[in-house]
Amino acid sequence: MPMSNRASTAWSHEDDQLLLLERRKSVGWGQIQQKYFPNKTANACRKRHERLIKSKKADEWEGDKLGQLATAYEHVRKDMWTHLANQVGAQWDVVEKVCYETGLSRIRTAASNYQKKQHEPQHVPSSARLPSSAAHPPTLNQLSVPQDLSVPHGYRDSGIGIGIDPFTSEDMLTATALAQVHAHSQSHHSHPHYHAQPR
Predict the structure, then answer these.
(1) How many CB atoms lie within 10 A of CB 171?
(2) pTM to 2 decimals?
(3) How far apart are the C-alpha atoms of 56 and 23, rounded to whole Å?
(4) Whole-number Å distance between alpha carbons of 20 and 52
(5) In angstroms, rounded to a whole number, what is the distance separating the alpha carbons of residues 5 and 23?
(6) How far is Cα 65 from Cα 177, in angstroms, rounded to an integer?
(7) Rounded to an integer, what distance in angstroms lies between the CA atom of residue 134 and that of residue 188?
């Protein structure tokens, strides 16, 4: 076939058909350019071929094929969009309109940005943080425990009660310390603005 002598920016119908034909033979872009389109670049041939393929695919959806697609869409339209709308708490026809008006590219970008935001660490205001004393309650050794505890009535110095289980001064120290830990914990869980009214 004769080589094309047209300017690099002009493509004729014959050029397009030749380009499609040679590419179907799996001929490389460099070979196609050198043999048939010396006034164009190999990249220009590739770009032209891409546009031709896209246009051809779009043309395939005209006529009866597009009618079949439209009919099938009408049959599933409400169910399809309702499933999506239920996930965002909106009406199905509103979701359909938003998606069509936004476009696939912008929807994908919005989805990517939203997912990244969900994985970012959440900032906790300083006013909402627990005091260090509440997060780390004092140990038994840090609490003030009375040292001069008296033995309750009914207990001997040996710690052996009359008719009841043994109870030692060490037991009383432990019980007192636990009571203070409990009181300390309750004070941090009480409402900060609550004050008992005088009787």
Answers:
(1) 12
(2) 0.38
(3) 15
(4) 8
(5) 20
(6) 83
(7) 6
